[in-house]
Amino acid sequence: xxxxxxxxxxxxxxxxxxxxxTLTPDQVPPKVSREVWLRCPAGHEWQERIxxxxxxxxxxxxxxxxxxxxxxxxxxxxxxxGHSVQITAEKxxxxxxxxxxxxxxxxxxxxxxxxxxxxxxAAKDSAAEAAELIxxxxxxxxxxxxxxxxxxxxxxxxxQGAYGAQAVQWRYKPxxxxxxxxxxxxxxxxxxxxxxxxxxxxxxxxxxMLDQAHWAAGWLHYLTGRRPRPVDAEDLLSVAGLFxxxxxxxxxxxxxxxxxxxxxxxxxxxxxxxxxxxxxxxxNLNGPLPAQAYRELxxxxxxxxxxxxxxxxxxIWQCGFxxxxxxxxxxxxxxxxxxxxxxxxxxxxxxxxxFGTGNVDAPGGVAVIDLRDxxxxxAR
Length: 380
What we know:
Mean pLDDT is 83; it is low at 203-218. The strands form 3 sheets. Strands 5-6-7-8-9 form a 5-stranded mixed sheet, sandwiched between helices. It is of the alpha/beta class. The chain has 4 domains: 4-71, no CATH class; 104-187; 194-224, no CATH class; 233-378, 3-Layer(aba) Sandwich (Trna Endonuclease, Chain: A, domain 1), CATH 3.40.1350. It is 45% helix and 14% strand. It has helices spanning 4-7, 9-12, 50-53, 89-97, 104-125, 127-135, 145-168, 176-187, 194-204, 215-218, 220-224, 233-261, 267-283, 334-345, 372-375, and strands at residues 35-39, 45-49, 75-78, 84-87, 292-298, 311-318, 321-329, 349-354, 367-370.
């Protein structure tokens, strides 16, 4: 590995010749978090981590070896935690108007120890107030109800997060009032423009794999009047047959291995293993380009009993080929049926992998891969 002197000679030139003992720039790597003494040509001396010194923040203005004092950072500010830093006069004025109780390092330590929990608790305490404020915001006439419900869920989460941050942190930008103004403005334009929908559809279809199901793509039917375009029934059977053959073979091997090891898996473990197997199968599909598997893809469908959009377990994208959507369930799930029906109408291959217990009542045009008998010896 190259030393600091070899890779950053301009930084090595500021090495303090007397205050670092026998340590020299030739003996240290350029990205180590060790503090050393430095001295600029003007004679200013300070301690700094080597890894920090070899970065290029904006304040250096292109000079890697720049000295803070020479660049105008000449005000010493002491935080209530007792630590002092050199800052600009402008930053000092800002801290005087909006004081921070901790320096950056102390704030990070506080955040890791208690801050995350305090922020979560404060946000939960603001949930009711945030939901009430969002519910009072008028939305555009004619906006589809599922889209409005998803927007209200999303907006309330943003708002209660802003309230929680203000309660436990010294500063939060944007503030809760800023967030409320932002989501209020968005409520007036909930329905995406047809141009947005057209661009999304021209990319990779209604599901728009590469930009994680933008609302404009999800509501393409509503915006353009395009009719559902399910894949050909014979093609669906062909894809389902490929997946069924793969998973039945996997199940036989998994059950044999588990029996040999006298091991069993619970439902969550089986679901996780099946999901990883879908990803593995996607990487081994033959196509003009490697297939990609996307997990937890949001769809503009609010499943029965839910308050926000549903998410497909896995979606497989291949260039020049219809998307393959996969739901994995251990029991009958109406939410999965609703999501797979949307994927069917969007022109995808909808596959429902079932294991565990319960009947299979799939919507028309949705292929079921029934692994209930094959996996039963593996479950506990």
